[in-house]
Amino acid sequence: MRFACFSLLLVSLTMQAQPSTDARLERKLRVALANFQGDAGVYVHHLRTGKTVAINADTLFPTASTIKIPIQCGLFDKIQKGELTYGQELVYHDSLHYDDGIVGSLRNGAKIPLSEVVMLMESVSDNTGSLWCQALAGGGEAINQWLETNGFHQTRVNSRTPGREAARSRYGWGQTTPRELAGLMTYIRQGRAVSPAASEEMYRNLGRQYWDNDGLSQIPPEIKTATKNGAVNQSRSEVVFVHAPHGEYVYCVMTKNQKDIRWERDNEGSALLRNVSALLWQYFEPKSTWKPAEGYEKWY
Hints:
Number of helices: 10
CATH superfamily: DD-peptidase/beta-lactamase superfamily
CATH topology: Beta-lactamase
Number of domains: 1
CATH architecture: 3-Layer(aba) Sandwich
CATH class: Alpha Beta
Structural class: alpha+beta
């Protein structure tokens, strides 16, 4: 009897693990992407049903600041190995300066806990802090090795990484695919990145997002999300894990070669991030009557 029950459990888990395409949702997303002036990719996975949509989901895109998710994983791998301590005190030096974000505005010799630098990397996307974390993680080579070992074969750090100069010229700081980036977010959510405890802390950091004017603006504020976005002139990207009432879902939208390079709210790539997010929320939560408050755009 116990063997029979165990066998049924294995069958059930196997069936849940098999993804299948949500054809109706795919049609809606293709319409949303149809007139985009540039290249766009989308990957969606509804974890309860196992349904997915993959549109250019295995195409390489620039990560921009979404590379800060792999950097965090590499850093926590060092912490797990005892080579760093999450709460250790760091000393900032002017030689670390990249731009005038929060970390880059510290005075020479200022002390700051590593945990705060990591939080700033993920929440406000602090660039100086992120490059500091990349170096502390052992650099791009160590982070890329962690990615490869954990099955993320397309996601790579390019900047300040020996041997990846050509990739950096093409993709910038890093490169990934919508499928892999969404997969990495799910990997962390499921407690599989580095360790369950490390995954939990990383996920908490990803749940403290300052930049909430794109995809997050189309999800009710009381809904828990974990996210990271990124933007450079010709690219807008966002990966979001949504704790929706009728089942968690994760999605990633990435663009490149955009014709619209304006840094305005109505940038075509930014608008696409919002449109996809709204479409997914309405699709997965059809009985929800929530919508962004009238005039919310003025806050951005």
